[in-house]
Design goal:
This protein has a four-stranded parallel sheet, with helices on both faces. It starts with 6 loop residues before the first strand and ends in a 9-residue tail after the last strand. By secondary structure, it is an alpha/beta fold. Helix 2 packs parallel to helix 3 and helix 3 (64-74) packs parallel to helix 4. The protein has helices at 15-27, 38-47, 64-74, 100-109, and strands at residues 7-11, 31-35, 52-56, 58-59, 62-63, 80-83, 86-88, 91-93, 116-117, 125-126. It has four helices and ten strands, in the order βαβαβββαβββαββ.
């Protein structure tokens, strides 16, 4: 990890997602370290400082909320964003209706970002918006 530029820890069990985020962060001038599960993420956190952590909600050995709580307790200056994608009726949606409680729990645990819920039979609903858009 290069300490002369910002660094991010990316935690996701999907290699393609890790690679996409690594490329994106590199283009932004942000060094990145990759972990495919909670155990590896905790080991990397113990080894060095990160300016940001991006974690998937569901991981093979736990969930992103567990990592948010671990970071908030042990590395309180490191912001965390929980990212996720779910499939409903063959369509991938950022956060499915059934997963909205997980999303809200991650925010309550200390992650940041806008919580959006896409029910299977409706358009996007933003918890921060006053009106529902139809798409």
């Amino acid at each position: 990890m290069n300490n002369t530029r910002p660094s991010a820890l990316v935690v996701d069990d999907e290699p393609d997602i890790r690679e996409l985020l690594e490329i994106t962060l590199e283009r932004m001038g942000i060094a990145s370290s990759m972990a495919e599960n909670l155990a590896n993420a905790r080991a990397l956190l113990a080894e060095g400082h990160f300016n940001l952590c991006l974690t998937d909600m569901r991981l093979p050995d736990g969930n992103g909320i567990d990592l948010v709580e671990h970071i908030q307790k042990n590395y309180p200056d490191t912001p965390v964003a929980v990212i996720t994608a779910r499939t409903i009726r063959g369509r991938t949606r950022p956060i499915a209706a059934a997963d909205s409680s997980e999303s809200l729990s991650s925010v309550a645990a200390g992650s940041f970002g806008t919580t959006r819920v896409w029910p299977a039979d409706r358009g996007p609903i933003s918890r921060n918006a006053k009106t529902r858009s139809s798409s």
